[in-house]
C-alpha cells in the first residue's frame, strides 16, 4: 500500500473533476446536454487508450466477460451524466458539487437492497442526516417571492439528486463487475457507452461550437478521462476507506473556480448543508473501515496459544 501516492492521485482527480464541472457549467447554458455528454465521453477515451496501451493493458481493457453487466452499468452512468450536467447548467458549481455528496448515502441503501449487505442503524442514521443537509442547502430556494429563479434552481437540484442516485446505482454495479472484470475494461466501456448515448441526441439539434467552445468541450472529455484514471489508480494503491474522504476537496476547488470564473459566492446555507452531508458521508466511510477491520480480524481467527 502506497498511501501518500494514493492521496496525491485522489487530490489530482478531485481537482480535474472540479475543472471539468466548471467547463460544463460554462458551456452547458449554450449547448444541448447530449452534445456535452458526447464530448465528455468520446474525448475521455483518448487518454484512457493512450495510458492503458502504454501500460500494455489495452487488450485486457477490450476483453470482457459480462457484456450485459457492462451495458447496465453504462446506462446508469449515462443517466448520472445527463442529470449531473443538467444540474450544472442551472446551479452554481458549488451547489451542484455539494449535492453530489449525497451519492454515497444512496449507495448505502442500494447496497442493502441489491448486494444484500447488512446495513445497521448507524449507517441508516447517517443517510437520514445527510438528506437533512440537502434540505438545509436548498432552503433559500423555497422562497416563493423569487419564483422564476427558484424554479430554475429547484429543477437543477432535482436533476442533481437524480444524478446522485444514478451515480450510486453505477457504483453498486461497479462493485459487482469488479469481481470478474478488469478496471481498465470498466473505464473504457463506460466511456464508449456514454459517448454512443450522447451521439444519439445528434438529431435533436446540436450546435456548431466556436473554436473556444470546441476547445472547452474537448477539455471536458480529456479532464474527465484523466480524472477517472487517477481516481482508479488511487483506489488501486490504498484502501478505499482511506482515500475516499479526499473526495471532499472538490468542494474547495468548486468554490474557488466558481468565484474566479462566474463570480459565484454561495450563501451560508450551502456551506452548512454541505458540511452536514460531508459529515454523514465521512461517518459512513469510517463505519465501513471499522467493519472491514472487524471482518479481517474475524478471518484471521483467535491468536494461537503459547
Write up this protein.
This protein is an all-alpha fold and 306 residues long. It has one domain. It has 14 helices and no strands. The longest helix is centred in the last third of the chain and has 33 residues. The chain is globular and about 60 Å long.
Core attributes:
single chain; 306 residues; mainly alpha; 77% helix; globular
- Helix % is over 70%
State the total count of DSSP E strands.
0
**SSE succession:** HHHHHHHHHHHHHH
Global shape: globular
| Global mean pLDDT | 81
Strand portion? under 5%
Biggest sheet features: none
Cα-atom radius of gyration: 20 Å
SS-derived structural category: mainly alpha
Distance between the termini: 31 Å
Uncertain regions: pLDDT < 50 for 5+ in a row? Answer: none
The count of domains is 1
Q: Total number of helical segments? A: 14
Sum this structure up briefly:
The chain has 14 helices and no strands. The protein has 306 residues and is mainly α.
Write the SSE topology.
Elements (H helix, E strand, L loop, with lengths): L2 H26 L4 H10 L2 H10 L3 H5 L4 H22 L4 H8 L2 H12 L6 H18 L8 H31 L5 H17 L11 H27 L2 H4 L5 H14 L5 H33 L6
Amino acid at each position: 500500500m502506497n498511501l501518500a501516492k494514493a492521496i496525491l492521485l485522489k487530490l489530482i482527480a478531485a481537482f480535474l473533476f472540479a475543472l471539468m464541472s466548471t467547463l460544463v457549467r460554462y458551456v452547458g447554458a449554450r449547448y444541448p446536454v447530449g452534445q456535452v455528454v458526447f464530448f465528455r465521453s468520446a474525448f475521455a477515451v483518448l487518454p484512457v487508450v493512450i495510458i492503458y496501451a502504454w501500460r500494455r493493458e489495452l487488450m485486457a481493457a477490450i476483453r470482457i466477460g459480462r457484456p450485459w453487466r457492462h451495458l447496465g452499468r453504462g446506462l446508469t452512468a449515462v443517466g448520472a451524466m445527463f442529470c449531473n450536467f443538467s444540474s450544472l447548467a442551472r446551479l452554481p458549481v458549488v451547489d451542484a458539487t455539494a449535492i453530489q455528496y449525497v451519492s454515497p448515502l444512496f449507495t448505502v441503501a442500494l447496497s442493502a437492497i441489491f448486494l444484500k449487505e447488512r446495513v445497521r442503524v448507524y449507517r441508516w442514521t447517517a443517510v437520514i442526516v445527510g438528506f437533512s443537509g440537502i434540505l438545509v442547502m436548498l432552503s433559500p430556494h423555497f422562497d416563493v417571492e423569487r419564483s422564476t429563479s427558484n424554479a430554475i434552481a429547484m429543477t437543477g437540484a432535482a436533476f442533481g439528486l437524480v444524478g446522485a442516485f444514478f451515480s450510486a446505482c453505477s457504483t453498486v454495479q461497479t462493485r459487482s463487475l469488479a469481481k470478474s472484470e478488469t478496471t481498465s475494461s470498466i473505464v473504457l466501456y463506460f466511456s464508449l457507452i456514454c459517448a454512443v448515448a450522447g451521439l444519439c441526441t445528434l438529431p435533436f439539434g446540436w450546435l456548431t461550437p466556436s473554436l473556444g467552445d470546441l476547445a472547452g468541450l474537448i477539455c471536458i472529455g480529456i479532464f474527465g478521462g484523466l480524472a477517472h484514471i487517477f481516481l482508479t489508480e488511487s483506489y488501486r494503491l490504498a484502501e478505499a476507506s482511506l482515500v475516499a474522504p479526499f473526495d471532499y476537496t472538490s468542494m474547495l476547488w468548486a468554490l474557488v473556480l466558481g468565484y474566479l470564473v462566474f463570480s459565484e459566492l454561495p450563501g451560508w446555507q450551502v456551506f452548512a448543508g454541505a458540511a452536514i452531508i460531508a459529515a454523514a458521508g465521512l461517518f459512513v466511510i469510517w463505519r465501513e473501515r471499522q467493519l472491514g477491520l472487524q471482518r479481517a480480524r474475524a478471518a484471521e481467527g483467535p491468536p494461537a496459544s503459547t
